[in-house]
Amino acid sequence: MNIKKAEIVISAVKPQQYPKGDLPEIALAGRSNVGKSSFINKMIHRKNLARTSSKPGKTQTLNFYLINDQFYFVDVPGYGYAKVSKKEREAWGKMIETYLTTRIQLKAVVLLVDVRHPPTKDDIMMYEFLKYYKMPTIVVATKADKVPKGKWSKHVKIIKKALHLHPNDEFILFSAETGYGKEEAWNVLLKSMS
Ligand SMILES: Nc1nc2c(ncn2[C@@H]2O[C@H](COP(=O)(O)OP(=O)(O)OP(=O)(O)O)[C@@H](O)[C@H]2O)c(=O)[nH]1
Ligand SMILES: [Mg+2]
């Protein structure tokens, strides 16, 4: 995929702020700090267009990144970040739910999980939520560089089993550090938008 142009269009908190038009959108969901913003940056080979941080809770709004004037990556705030108030958490939950359940332009959700660990309760809940709404989901197990190659298949098996991965859903092993899985991810993303 040749990226000629990538720009942030809006950080939205409510539907009136979502971009107009009917370009397809791919949303990134997952636990705080799992690597959603890093995934976007790696895919479009930009160092820091989507702001990343070693501190969880960096992304707090729905950030719409327009790629090649063709489609949007939508960076969604991560869940499972302890250091926010209950009220804040509820507000984020509503914002995310509204977007995921009402946005017609949304073609698929990339659900990122950490390949090092079994999915958390929140990961499983998120996946079930997406399946309840019949949302095409691409599970990306990221940070593959942090697990020795010989152990990849064992970790992958555990994740697929814990999620009860739906047969129609794609699963991709990925690393934002090395770029492993990037080409496969592009193939799957383009297919989901076609
Ligand atoms: N080694 C390694 N580190 C990664 C990878 N992906 C992300 N990271 C690191 O993990 C940390 C969190 O990455 P982010 O991309 O900011 O995570 P996020 O999911 O956007 O986090 P929030 O915006 O807080 O929800 C950063 O320090 C990244 O450098 C990966 O594939 N490999
Ligand atoms: Mg982020």
Explain what you see:
The chain is of the alpha/beta class and 194 residues long. The protein is 31% helix and 22% strand. The chain is built from 5 helices and 7 strands; from the N terminus they run ββαββαβαβαβα. It has helices spanning 36-43, 86-102, 121-132, 152-163, 182-193, and strands at residues 6-12, 25-30, 62-67, 71-75, 106-114, 137-142, 170-173. It has a 7-stranded mixed β-sheet, with helices on both faces. The longest helix has 17 residues, at 86-102. The protein is globular. Guanosine-5'-triphosphate (GTP) binds at residues 30, 32-38, 52-54, 56-59, 77-78, 142-143, 145-146, 175-177. Guanosine-5'-triphosphate binds at residues 30, 32-38, 52-54, 56-59, 77-78, 142-143, 145-146, 175-177.
Q: Please give the order of strands in the largest beta sheet.
A: 1-3-4-2-5-6-7
**Proportion of helical residues:** 25-40%
What best-fitting shape do the alpha-carbon axes yield? globular
Summed up, the helix count is: 5
Task: List the secondary-structure elements in sequence, H or E.
Answer: EEHEEHEHEHEH
Structural class: alpha/beta
What's the main sheet like? Answer: 7 strands, mixed
Strand percentage lies at 15-25%
Mean pLDDT equals 93
Low-confidence stretches: none
User: Radius of gyration, Cα only, in angstroms?
Assistant: 16 Å
The number of strands is 7
Distance between the ends: 15 Å
Bound molecules: guanosine-5'-triphosphate, magnesium ion
